[in-house]
Structure of 2TM domain protein:
Amino acid sequence: MNDANPSLQDARRQVERKIGFYLHLAAYLIVNSGLLLLNFLHNPGHPWALGPILGWGIGLLFHGVAVFLKDPGAQWKQRMIERELEKHKRTPPT
């Protein structure tokens, strides 16, 4: 394996991020299914399980957005990094 290839590193990083999201989603579904079951078996008149489902769901939504939507600031950030690298190339070491 050649880890010097930036494209390969980016692809691996993105795959790891996607796997992390899917694990997060699986945990969300399993835990909240259990909470719903407990809620409806022991206290069906009071839907307390909706609080954790909603709160965790918001976190899961943000996780998914961060993984699957292209970061609009990424190109801007990359241009800034490239400018800084160019400055360092032009500036002699001290």
Observations:
- The longest helix spans residues 6-42.
- The two ends are 36 Å apart (CA to CA).
- The mean pLDDT is 88.
- Residues 28 and 56 are 7 Å apart (CA to CA).
